[in-house]
Amino acid sequence: MAELTLGTPADVDRAIPAARLALREWATATPAQRCTVLTRLAELTELHARELVDEEVRQTGKPLRLAEEFDVPGSVDNIGFFAGAARHLHGLASAEYSAEHTSNIRREALGVVAAITPWNYPLQMAVWKTLPALAAGCTVVIKPSELTPLTTLTLARLATESGLPDGVFNVVTGLGADVGTALAAHPGVDMVTFTGSTAVGRNVMAAAAVHGHRTQLELGGKAPFVVFDDADIDAAVHGAVAGALINSGQDCTAATRAIVARDLYDDFICGVAEVMSKVVVGDPTDPDTDLGPLISLAHRRRVADIVARAPAEGARIVVGGKSPDSVGAFYPPTLLADVDERSQAYRDEIFGPVLTVRPHDGDDDALRQANDTDYGLAASAWTRDIYRAQRASREIKAGCVWINDHIPIISEMPHGGLGASGFGKDMSDYSLEEYLTIKHVMSDITGVAEKPWHRTVFAIRN
Q1: Count of domains in the chain?
Q2: What percent of the chain has pLDDT above 90?
Q3: Domain that holds residue 309
Q4: Is 350 a member of any domain?
Q5: What residues act catalytically?
Q6: What is the rounded CA–CA span in Å between residue 241 and residue 255?
């Protein structure tokens, strides 16, 4: 597909001063000027949608339909959203909270942002991490995953063509252990934003803490999919399959732990098994393909090993569970029933097309099981009862709770987790706050040289 330069910490040492040099011009540009450039970037991204779709499919193996209908149009919409948001960075109006002074609040660009992105949604994650920063007036140095850097490089090229000044958007390709660590620990950055595994996220946070960098982390997940006894079983079945298999299950918000009312348990398992059996696994460039390969053979081995251990831990493999003999890192849709709460398949993030199912014995038990995890990124609750829905949304510990659906996201709404899933928000106006610093400006309005409060410090003597 492509041959890229393997960047080094020396490249990071070149990129960060370039971003620092460009910061003054970009941070002091008017909101209208930043909006104009970013709007042009949205237009160019849409014009190059076919190129981006093809690159995304080739480098990740995700199905063509997913890239065409989700990844690329979602990225275009997100860029357009933040182009508009650039014009709405308001501070508080002036006010005399003290008789001798007036105060106002400025929201200013935080500075140089180091962004480290994963391989599962390369274009979307590059947009999520860079666009709010750019809208806020920050400059960016981004390291895409070494497995999927192509669309990030294309986005950077389009950013330059849109009129973004040199040094505002910088890309350093390379390995996480080299370039990623150097970025997170560099004294010249003001913030580190990272999406990836919880284990790596902890290392990034530790590296960033050496210099006191602000951090924003979107990490792993193990989303509960809670089906109450009054749920629309057909909707829950289809929602579970879609939520578990999106992007071949390589999604931190994927439905991974179905917790189903005992009265509906058998029907749910039969329904999911039937729908999963019709899923087409194959060539991701074929429009009829539903499920492409996993990112690598090494990752498939990890997924397969966890599933292979599940029966010894009490699980029943209902569908799938065996790597095909065909060439490629394909793994079939897999349904594990009767999974023990302490098993690896139930507790660890598998990051593959695997759904585990357990029964629950009432609302209290369902919500207890939903919260029995270190993660807290996403969850869903399936019920016809508004009071149950509201209770679930209130009590489930997650950054996002869907009711009678699972997965949909939109630019106007925030995305981010709790606990081992990280902290801070991507998307929406809330994410802009990650890249801004709040400054209080207090101005004397008396014109008096000897202020009344001075006598608190020293006696005023004539």
Answers
A1: 2
A2: 93
A3: 223-403
A4: yes
A5: 218
A6: 8
